[in-house]
Amino acid sequence: MRQIVLDTETTGLDWRKGNRVAEIGCVELVERRPTGRTWHQYIHPEREFEAGAQEVTGLTLDFLADKPKFAAIADEFLEFIDGAELVIHNAAFDVGFLDYELSLLEGGRGRIGDRAAVLDSLELARQRFPGQRNSLDALCRRLGVDNAHRQLHGALLDAQLLAEVYLALTSGQTELGLAGPAVPEPAAVRPDRPLAAALAPRPRVAIAAVEHEAHLARVDAIRGRAGKALWDEADEVAELSGTA
Question: What total of structural domains would you count in the chain?
Answer without folding.
Answer: 1
